[in-house]
Amino acid sequence: MKSLDPAKPALLGLDWGTSSLRAWLLDAQGIILHTHHARQGILHLPDGGFAQVLSDILAQWRLNDPVPMLACGMVGSINGWREVSYLPCPASLCQLADGLGLQPTAHGMLHIVPGLLKDGSLPDVMRGEETQIVGIMGTDGNSHHTVVLPGTHSKWAQVQGQIITEFRTFMTGELFAVLMRHSILGRLPSTAPPDDGYRDEAFAMGVRTAQSGIPLAGRLFSARTVVLRNRLERAYTADYLSGLLIGEEIHAGMAALEATQHATPVLVGERALCQRYRLAFTVLGHPPPSIAGNTAPAGLFRLACAAHLLDRTPSHLHDQKGAVI
Amino acid sequence: MKSLDPAKPALLGLDWGTSSLRAWLLDAQGIILHTHHARQGILHLPDGGFAQVLSDILAQWRLNDPVPMLACGMVGSINGWREVSYLPCPASLCQLADGLGLQPTAHGMLHIVPGLLKDGSLPDVMRGEETQIVGIMGTDGNSHHTVVLPGTHSKWAQVQGQIITEFRTFMTGELFAVLMRHSILGRLPSTAPPDDGYRDEAFAMGVRTAQSGIPLAGRLFSARTVVLRNRLERAYTADYLSGLLIGEEIHAGMAALEATQHATPVLVGERALCQRYRLAFTVLGHPPPSIAGNTAPAGLFRLACAAHLLDRTPSHLHDQKGAVI
After folding, report:
1. What is the ipTM of this complex?
2. Looking at beta carbons, which residues of chain A come within 8 Å of B183?
3. Do the first three CATH levels of B9-127+304-317 and B172-293 match, i.e. the same topology?
4. Is the pLDDT of residue B295 over 80?
5. Where in this chain does the entry annotate a coiled-coil region (chains A, B) (predicted)?
């Protein structure tokens, strides 16, 4: 223990994704004591890299006494440290806590949150987002939330009380990246756009195309033609295309919601991206959703509590429902 | 003149696109005497490359006497040999013939077909496809056709008599290419699929997702999850994704057609791709469209006739309507 630390470390939480790693040291109330963020995603690690990265983090925080460790994300995938089978969706907080995978390490057992699988004609999967969703779950069993997690593979999830009932993946972020880097649309921009307020206008212009009634594949080409027609400066192509793709996602997601009369979504994730999504909601005439930020540490803490990791008592001595905050 | 040639060359027609060049030597009836096809698209040529390629083709066919020359495609774009302004759509065969651009060469004047521009909130452009469309135009002024030209940037065009009245670009081919080469979807396939008939089944499986009511960005990820769920062998991911994207295009294109009660489309372009499109039409419950193949040489010949290039009489001496076959 680092003697200057006023609070006692109680949990090492990790969100270990494809490209990046975020780790938090939390106390027994779930307060964040330390944060680590690096491009140490599972695709960037050499063989044996997982153990080394974990040791480095613990050494960096001078954690001489072992603490419970819980990770979520692609670290539990077939390309991760230890594959943890998907749980079928719907899945409750308690089912997630009961389904943790185990990876022995030099510093004790690393627990890994399972991802979720939704079966059906178009099956869908998530790994990591289930933990972020747990981080904003209420304790009211009758509450109903729609949680939107923007990103490379955006997720729209339905949450009823402490159960994730349904979700859908939109490849919005990845589509944007591959189209800007590798398609004819990305060849146009020549200069970085100045931060002059016009970026939001170009973004909104792209968002509004979602209301045209023309499907996505028939609107993408407009990111080129609006420049050819001098309706958009080419430096703003990325903002327009981002708006076009995010607008598509929100238009489709909200159309599905309106059919079921669910509540206004909550945005979870990186704040700047959530703000762009919020702008798109308002451009499309929807109320602005609230932004919850990154709820992964809260979700990890909550799952650790539900799995009785914090008190280090074997979980079979506890009521299966556990004591959750 | 090559003495063994029974027919007299009357027109050199060129479809000079971004990545490839197709050239045809035609007689006075529009019969193809010679064909040249090479990866000599405008993006593959060094400075001055246009003139050299043209000279090489004429030398290869031993054309000692000059012939009228007419080109369509990206050769008329800002990155081509000579920029020819877009004509506004709707545009008739005669307007296209009257709008030819001119590029002097060592072998006489090269005429270049203008592209078309459709203005509106989502502007659209074509270069080259207008000539293919002219190639299947009837002579009945009251006929109505929908022409579908599959490709990197697929076009759906409405043709009334000899007028192209409307069109829409779908970035289907380019989306497929960038997703297979650069996204997570393309990382899965490990082996080339055997030609065992199952490729069409995987393609049809992708096509059918267009009927799910879920928009494109929310279905793309299924190209990964159907493999994870063992519903599709990973070797067939490309066929599934191709079906998903082509299905989207046809579903959207036909929905727009049904709203206007236009006729069953005609497919124009490379035969193997047209056959895949035809399969997708039937999978989605539509009648199989006819396949017209590559109509660019017919279109070039027709435009050359309308522009009075074949008889080498100055066009101002002719009736503007010209004599078209």
Report:
1. 0.86
2. 171, 174-175, 178
3. yes
4. yes
5. none
